[in-house]
Amino acid sequence: MLTRRCGVLGDPIAHSLSPVLHRAAYAELGLDWAYDAHRVASGGLGAFLDGLDPEWRGLSLTMPLKREALPLVDRLSDRARLAGAVNTVVLEDDGTRSGDNTDLPGAVAAIRERTTSPLATAAILGGGATATSVGLALADLGVSLIRLAVRDAARAEETVTALRAHPAAPEVVVEPLEGGQWSIGPDLRAAGSTVDIVVSTIPASAQTPELVAGCADVAAVFDVLYAPWPTPLAASADGRVLVGGLDLLVHQAALQVELFTGLVAPLSVMREAGERALAARSAG
After folding, report:
1. CA 15-21-23 angle, 5° bins
2. Strands across the sheet with 145-150, in order?
3. Whether 190 and 279 share a structural domain
4. So what's the pLDDT on residue 283?
5. Nearest to 134 by CA among 263, 31, 220
6. Helices (H), 84-206
7. How far apart are CA 136 and CA 214, in angstroms?
8. Coil, strand or helix: which one is 73?
9. Which DSSP category does 12 fall into?
10. In a shared domain, residues 122 and 213
11. What interhelical angle do 103-114 and 129-140 show, nearest 10?
């Protein structure tokens, strides 16, 4: 029987927790599959794909390859096309490549695992590919107003366009994220404006005390990072709904496992493996 190979590609990649999650899943499913991390810099994805042999079944993509993959696959899922980003490539037996985006449904599952409250207004800090996927997930969940806080509005144009193209047509307002500061704003707060969930896609080092304080009135916090953990924003969420990067990573990885294998992913086994790995890193 053909041994299957899968892997995660990106740059940097040494920190990735994906090998831990996928290996745990394959072991639990009784599959003798390999899954490794491969450093592939921007511009190198095409050559990597062209060099794969029939043993390869699937790839997980992270920065900076999610958008680079779009013209390199033969088929795109509707959600990958909507997001303008591919984080999953399935290498079919006929030699074709299918591109998908499991970040979007993974974010929906991660949020709904932690809260079933209705969500109407959201703030997203950062405007990259992950912000796009999570923003689209929020639109799926009923969010009709997305406040996108970015340092450079021009660089967030792809994200704004993708969010506005969602079938629900959410309103997208671009706001400045300057000097590590963002908040609901006193004028809006006085007018009764609320934000139901704040999503951070920015580094922990950019989460200044001023920014954290500006998010204090938001009922739910979603930080897409899983290391270092807790981030300043996550640490401030005591008593509030908190969705973490490990939640997102596990749910999107479980969907990848199912796309690669055709089997139901062992979600709890994958989460426990991730938690052990992060605990070991912290102890080290």
Report:
1. 105
2. 171-176, 145-150, 121-125, 197-200, 220-223, 241-243
3. no
4. 82
5. 220
6. 103-114, 129-140, 157-164, 186-190
7. 24
8. coil
9. S
10. yes
11. 60
Give pLDDT, residue 193. Answer: 60
Please, which residues have CB within 8 angstroms of residue 73's CB and are 6 or more apart in sequence? 86, 89, 97, 98, 99
Global confidence as pTM: 0.93
Q: What is the CATH number of the domain that holds 33?
A: 3.40.50.10860
Q: Are β-strands 121-125 and 145-150 bridged in parallel, bridged antiparallel, or unpaired?
A: parallel
**Of residues 139, 134, 132, the one with CA closest to residue 107:** 134
Q: Is the peptide bond before 105 cis (omega within 30 degrees of 0)?
A: no
Same domain for 233 and 256, yes or no, is no
- Total tally of structural domains belonging to the chain: 2
What are the tokens at 20? 């831990």
Identify residue 97 by its one-letter amino acid code. R
Question: Is residue 197 a contact partner of residue 221, using CB atoms and an 8 Å limit?
Answer: yes
Side-chain half-sphere of 76: how many Cα atoms within 13 Å?
Answer: 17
What are the tokens at 199?
């999503």
d(CA 242, CA 230): 11
Report how far residue 55's alpha carbon sits from residue 93's, in angstroms, rounded to the nearest whole number. Answer: 10
Q: Give the integer Cα–Cα distance in Å for 129 and 61.
A: 12
The phi, psi pair for 256, rounded to 5°, reads -65, -45
Q: Which domain holds residue 185?
A: 104-246
Phi and psi dihedrals of 20, rounded to 5? Answer: -60, -45
Identify whether 230 is preceded by a cis peptide bond (ω within 30 of 0).
Answer: yes
**275 shares a domain with 197:** no
Same domain, 212 and 180: yes
CB 257 within 8 A of CB 22: yes
pLDDT, block means (10 residues), the chain with 284 residues: 88 96 98 97 98 97 95 97 95 96 97 97 94 97 96 93 96 88 59 80 94 92 94 96 98 98 98 96 81
Task: Report the alpha-carbon angle 145-149-154, nearest 5.
Answer: 105
